[in-house]
Design a protein that fits this description.
alpha/beta; Rossmann fold; three-stranded antiparallel β-sheet
Length: 496
């Protein structure tokens, strides 16, 4: 079956762990992306593409979705299918055979209209991706079939004749007189024209409710009696009904929202000054400019605060960032932004940065420090080791790992020894990643480690900038006492 998300449905896809979504605050981002879209759409972001080929397939599709007007076409397609689903649901609740026949015509007409909309409008967008070209081929093959053409011709003829019916209802002397009427156009237009009324609460009383009143039922009987050939035709259409829905279009209805929901979210963020880029792969090269925490940007978008962008690069022979610096200096935010970068690139979507070049990482793993659990009674260090165990045991070749503040409850020397072992193991396995730590010694744990440091300005204020720099001793209390003139020497000098 054709899919806009994968080239081969038989490939095994990796599920995204809840811990990863929570650690990187991606769940907060996805709450905004999928708001009002339903659980089925949210689930699409819960599975990574099977491999690099599928991720590239998605990126190419998303590039087409970003073209002017393409998302609007799919929105219109989905709105039409939404009407189809609503009509279909109502039709199945109707007992009267004649009424059911009419609603079946409307149902099939809505479905055909959705398909024809794509056939008419999509080719003009000149799609370049394999996925979108495949969709056009599917549409051409399907709509060109003899069965589809016959169905389309029949339902359009029935629908057109149905829309031509007009009745005139006159209430006089305590009774209704129903006769066949004349006129063209929609009921709403007639009301607006004849009564000079802009009130949109006027609706066609014969269109939307499956429960007919006595006058509506008698009106339908009158029309069908006078148009007997149409009545027999529409009844035969329902009696001889065959399965007409192509499952690929129902799958498309769900899958395309994966792209359009993120596209709508992204364009809103861009209006607030946040940049996105498609990202590229050039071998093992890893460099990113203007990277920011997308979840933080979402949180700040309402109050006007700006996020601080950062750059990062792994040169040849470099594999792991070790980030040190003062508390609350932006280290964890920076690590999250790297994880989000890899996550959305793996998903085949644009990433929150000005420019990004990175490999496709087969796995994305996270380990963030958590509070000690009173439920287990094992202590924080044991809990951390338990969470770390799956990462250490699996094949980490081609993985990206985000680690935040390990072994904070261990003695300094023990934490250094264990942290170095973790780093060397992951590097030896062929993983890349970022390790946020208060242990400056880890910045020299391996030749392939890149030391990054969170910066303070000349007044010891946090800048939230992370730069390539040797780890320094950031004594939090000493820095504050120096800033406010409370060191022993400063107090002694003042007293003197």
């Amino acid at each position: 079956m054709f899919s806009l998300l994968t080239k081969d449905e038989s490939k095994v896809q990796e599920r995204v762990s809840y811990a990863l979504l929570a650690d990187l605050n991606i769940n907060r981002i996805l709450n905004l992306v999928t708001a009002g879209k339903g659980d089925e759409v949210r689930k699409l972001y819960g599975t990574f593409p099977a491999d690099e080929e599928d991720a590239a397939y998605r990126r190419a599709v998303f590039a087409d979705i970003k073209k002017a007007g393409v998302a609007d076409i799919f929105d219109e397609f989905q709105d039409t299918l939404k009407d189809w689903a609503a009509i279909k649901e109502k039709k199945e609740k109707i007992d009267l055979s004649l009424q059911q026949c009419i609603w079946y015509v409307r149902e099939v007409h809505a479905y055909i209209s959705a398909v024809e909309l794509l056939k008419e409008k999509l080719p003009a967008t000149n799609p370049e991706s394999e996925g979108m070209k495949g969709l056009l081929s599917l549409i051409d093959e399907y709509t060109g079939s003899e069965e589809y053409q016959s169905l389309k011709q029949t339902v359009y003829a029935l629908y057109d004749e149905l829309m031509e019916f007009r009745v005139k209802v006159i209430y006089t002397r305590d009774k209704f007189v129903i006769t066949e009427g004349t006129g063209k156009g929609a009921y709403q237009e007639a009301l607006t024209t004849n009564f000079d009324c802009k009130d949109t609460t006027f609706k066609n009383p014969f269109l939307n409710d499956i429960n007919t009143s006595e006058i509506e039922y008698e009106t339908a009987k009158l029309l069908m009696k006078k148009h007997k050939a149409f009545a027999e035709w529409v009844e035969a259409f329902l009696v001889n009904a065959k399965e007409y829905v192509r499952e690929e279009f129902l799958l498309l209805n769900k899958e395309v929202t994966f792209y359009t929901a993120y596209y709508r979210f992204m364009t809103e963020m861009q209006k607030n000054g946040h940049v996105f880029t498609a990202g590229v792969t050039e071998g093992d090269k890893f460099s990113v400019y203007g990277l920011y925490d997308l979840a933080l940007a979402c949180a700040y978008s309402d109050n006007g605060n700006n996020v601080i962008p950062n750059d990062a690069e792994l040169k040849e022979g470099e594999n792991f960032f070790v980030v040190t610096g003062p508390n609350q200096g932006g280290k964890t935010t920076f690590a999250r932004s790297l994880g989000q970068l890899v996550f959305f690139y793996k998903m085949g979507l644009d990433v929150p940065a000005a420019k990004a070049t990175l490999p496709y990482y087969g796995s994305l793993m996270t380990h963030f420090s958590v509070e000690e659990s009173s439920a287990t009674g094992r202590g924080k260090l044991v809990d951390e080791l338990e969470r770390l165990k799956p990462i250490m045991e699996q094949d980490n070749a081609g993985s990206f790992v985000v680690i935040n503040e390990l072994f904070t409850t261990a003695a300094h020397l023990d934490a250094c020894v264990m942290g170095e072992k973790v780093l060397k193991h992951l590097i030896g396995e062929g993983a890349r990643g970022v390790y946020v730590t208060h242990l400056n010694e880890l910045s020299k744990a391996d030749r392939s480690v890149v030391s990054l440091a969170a910066q303070l300005d000349e007044n010891l204020n946090r800048t939230f900038k992370i730069i390539r720099k040797e780890a320094e001793e950031y004594m939090g209390i000493d820095a504050l006492t120096t800033k406010y003139g409370l060191t022993y020497e400063q107090i002694k000098e003042r007293l003197a």
